[in-house]
């Protein structure tokens, strides 16, 4: 059954989401263009308009594969994992960003961490272990991750040092096609 | 008239077809009368059936004579009092373990309360007959009695409570309490048994059940009934076994509630009066900048003071000169030592 998230689930989910977009969560919740909400189905969190929910909720649980935009899923230990499918929303509202040099794009899209050598640009004053969106130099979002070092530390880093840990990238649309939904 | 008893007996013995109780044999048997046991150490002469049978009869006769001696000495002639056995025989089965006492039995033992034997039959007032205390056709059976079809209201009663129902409820409570206590006794006994020997699987199962029961009890045994307690690692959930009810995705009430909940979670995460919240990173950066600024100012000030300048221009300059002067003095001392 499609259902709203409980308060605990919301807290866990928003805590994870806030690592990437901070208080821009407010803009996801109150949208001027209609009522949107988060819904839980098969442990996955979907971001859907209320009209769409009404249609989706009419379907039998077994037959409903998904609706709206998948933001991620709750693991069996009740932690939340963001999926790459939510990249559109995260990239719109991201506070901190990392830009990749064209040479490092492919490596990242194959699931590797971002190294200092591949780093094009990074937002000023990015703290350590901050959720960041990773873009190419043409500002196309490629995925997201977590910084391994703060901006100040990155400057002193050797070229093979890891700048950002890989969490999700658009390459998953090909690599994990059957599990991603 | 004197009777020749010996002669009479001899005549009787010779006349009777049954063998005599007197045995023409030396009594060298070892006895353990408690076990009705006799042992003949003398070697067997001939091994033919007749002599064996005769030997067995004689020995049996000797043993029964001994037993009759005991009967002769006893006060009660109805039974032979056997002495305690001397020969230690091994048990067939292990010694049964002591049955663990229930809570009441333990308490009674402590207080020295002894159970009184009650008669099986009691006097039934209604039928004016003796009837069993419990079971079929028991005396003073409340279900059959015609006396309590009416309950008199007490002065304080307001008539809101059905007295019959209240009585039935009370009985139900009593029964359930008893059942709970019995269950507790059983579990405690199982627990005690399992702590003695943990070999049997069934006991292990019961021990697990006992553990989970006691954890569940401990979880709600704090001042807040477990509401504000920190959960320990791997602690079982408090609402285990309780079915969680979720809201529907579409009903308008639930939609409203969901929106409210989402808004409240967001507002708690990002409070409106942001002035109170401090970003640690930003604050650290600001203090670092401020410290650098003061350092730089101090440096430039000391550099200025080193250069020859007219004393007594400003307060700050004066201070700087005094400081540098001291430094020069120390330098001079060092040179002097050299």
TrEMBL record, chain A:
Domain of life, per lineage: Eukaryota
Keyword Nucleus in annotation: yes
Keyword RNA-binding: yes
Residues in PUA domain copies: 96-171
SUPFAM superfamilies: Pre-PUA domain, PUA domain-like
Localization: Nucleus, Nucleolus
One BP annotation, GO: ribosome assembly
Quaternary structure (record): Interacts with pre-ribosome complex.
Family to which this protein belongs: Belongs to the NIP7 family.
UniProt xrefs under PANTHER family: CYCLIN-DEPENDENT KINASES REGULATORY SUBUNIT/60S RIBOSOME SUBUNIT BIOGENESIS PROTEIN NIP7
Identification of the protein by name: 60S ribosome subunit biogenesis protein NIP7 homolog
Protein species of origin: Prymnesium parvum (Toxic golden alga)
From TrEMBL, chain B:
Family according to the record: Belongs to the RRS1 family.
Organism: Prymnesium parvum
One matching Pfam family: RRS1
Lineage: Eukaryota, Haptista, Haptophyta, Prymnesiophyceae, Prymnesiales
Biased composition (Basic residues): 325-338
Leader sequence residues: none
Entry protein name: Ribosome biogenesis regulatory protein
InterPro entries in alphabetical order: Ribosom_reg
Record's compositionally biased regions (Low complexity): 190-199, 300-311
Subcellular location: Nucleus
Record has Signal as a keyword: no
Any one GO biological process: ribosome biogenesis
UniProt biased composition (Basic and acidic residues): 164-189, 282-296
Membrane-traversing stretches: none
Record's keyword terms, sorted: Nucleus, Ribosome biogenesis
Role according to the record: Involved in ribosomal large subunit assembly.
Record's GO cellular component terms: nucleus
Positions of region (Disordered): 135-202, 221-262, 281-338
